[in-house]
Design brief:
By secondary structure, the protein is an alpha+beta fold. The protein has a single domain, classed as Gcn5-related N-acetyltransferase (GNAT) (Aminopeptidase), CATH 3.40.630. About 30% of the residues lie in helices and about 35% in strands. Strands 1-2-3-4-5-7-6 form a 7-stranded mixed beta sheet, sandwiched between helices. A hairpin with a 2-residue loop joins strand 2 and strand 3. The longest helix has 16 residues. It starts with a strand and ends with a strand.
Length: about 180
Amino acid sequence: MRGSTRIRLIEHTDAGPIAAHRVRDVEAFRPWEPDQPADFFTAEGQAQRIDRLLAEHRAGRVWPGVVLADDLVIGQITVGGILPQPHLRRASVGYWIGSVAQNLGHAGRAVGLVLRVMTDELGLHRAEASTNLENLPSQRVLRRNGFSPYGVAHSSIFLDGSWRDALLWERVLGD
């Protein structure tokens, strides 16, 4: 999984590979993500999720992508909550990389690539992200891509049985 990193818009054919990653990595992601219904871990459930993401993409609210290494799906990267109005022009970035491809630089390269999509294709001015306070690897990815922390959202997400704080990140695009 050391191959070159690419991103592209998610496709229906990605449902199976995504489901396989999510089933294998359910315990690894438990501290960082909310609980999901059982069908989230199936190809059918992922296909339905992809349908919703692509509908949101057509409406201009989301840019849902996959992360590829040597043309294999190894994760996802999503630009969500797109606010394209001239006085806002911002969105949030979220991502995950399957355990088989972690610690090889793919997350950092994927974030760099999606920042270009946000600037060049979506015409956005500001990128935002959030991480669990304990998620140091994700924080390193954001720092390496020019993000700066700007605050803490207290008790902002229910993860692994309790409310957790999130560290908020920002980057002005085009700088």
